[in-house]
């Protein structure tokens, strides 16, 4: 998905804003003149039906505001023909896959705003794109503060539809969050006296397409995951676990804070797994966690200087002076506060009554740039230098990479080298025994002989090449660190690295040893004969518990749940519908006391499931004929079956 063409016209201005202002001599940073005000606050009763929960909020707004955003949203979808495709997919997604309460809430919002439900669904998915700054900080007394800036395109429009919501259950606040009119998910929220969460986007291109694709594979919209976590997780540890393990539709950074000292984590998420986690640890100097929209083990992008200024201002403030006022000031300094900032949310789970989102109102930044030009003409030379460095093949970060960034990158690269070293060592063990790891047997060799270990040799060669490349990078980083840092800082860094690597080595060694032993067990247990298996099962079934175990063995096929998986003569995997011999026709009867709409959707869902399982048209036709007979036996009309 492409952003609108007019946005490209402001890129040069944004480039100037990010790079020229820090180079001016009159002030190290710029705090914008703002007139902030609290976002409107509403209650949502979780005791109501989902369709009714948002109705009173929608009545307080002119829906023209929401429709203005919808018009902008659809103009940003390219090519034009894809709009109808996405709307059709949204209908299917809402009808079959969206769980309650979100399906009902979206329908209720669409009805109140007089919008098509498929447009409301797409709006909720499109909000998966935003840029932000999130900060967790711990003061010397162990108090945890959590604040964030929300940055979006069309920030002026979003300011008009930003709301704070208290979700009420049985007369008490279950959780609080900040959202936008028409949006059922949460990007920022707090569970009283337990934890708070904020999310930052990790990528900014082709988001809607990638999100739709991820939905097909049962990923959760991130904002729904955050709301589910606020609703379900009883404490900080449970929240971190739920946010780390749930598949999602968009890569994201999740910042979580608790109520006790050290309860703070910045989670870098891929769609299926955790990529990286940083923890708050004031005893080792990590008294704050800062997150923007880049991986912290990499240098910030050349165009984005929010991380640099926020880090500098936090260090200048100092842990002993940290409170909501000083953090608000950090988040009010340009470019952390910028033309795209919609609101700043203040929260601390230990003091839930202080939760508030402040709508940011600022003057035109371009006028401020002109003021600085008049006071310092030296920006011309610096700007030329920046452009030259940006276009050169050498590192473009030399102007603003500080010591902490260099050291962090060095540490992460050492950890990566250690992991690859152990991967290569373990591959040697597998090759010596002609074994294939369990993960590769499932993912890479589902239809090839298990004895084929040639792929392992390629992996080992790749790891060897990666290690050689890393050695060069590490030497360069180490040289830069020794040039820029004092002897005392280098000594402290080396001691910390040695401690961290020793701990990591122990963890990796334990994990690899456990995995290797599991694979050894797999191979050891797979060398028996069919006769031995029969004898073993006979012993199990010789009992007085009236329990009989059945089994089936084959080197070419397996039955799992309702799927038969078979490897044909061409080593191709074929799938078909599987039913146990004891299965009965348990389809819901057509005369059941359910709504007609529910009855009509059952054939559609069953035939769709059959189509997904069957790998060939022939098997699908055969299974569909059987399924039609089962529906007729349960009283379904031919018209209803044909529509399915």
Structural commentary:
By secondary structure, the protein is α+β, with helices and mostly antiparallel strands. The protein has 3 domains: 36-299 and 338-362, Penicillin V Acylase, Chain A (4-Layer Sandwich), CATH 3.60.60; 403-525; 557-643, no CATH class. 47% of the residues lie in helices and 16% in strands. The chain contains 22 helices and 19 strands. The strands form 4 sheets. The chain has an 8-stranded mixed β-sheet with strand order 3-6-7-8-9-10-11-12. It has a 6-stranded antiparallel β-sheet with strand order 2-16-15-5-4-13. The longest helix is centred in the last third of the chain and has 39 residues, at 487-525. Mean pLDDT is 80; it is low at 1-33, 364-369, 371-380, 393-401 and 443-450.
What does this entry show, briefly?
By secondary structure, the protein is of the alpha+beta class. It folds into three domains: 36-299 and 338-362, Penicillin V Acylase, Chain A, CATH 3.60.60; 403-525; 557-643, no CATH class.
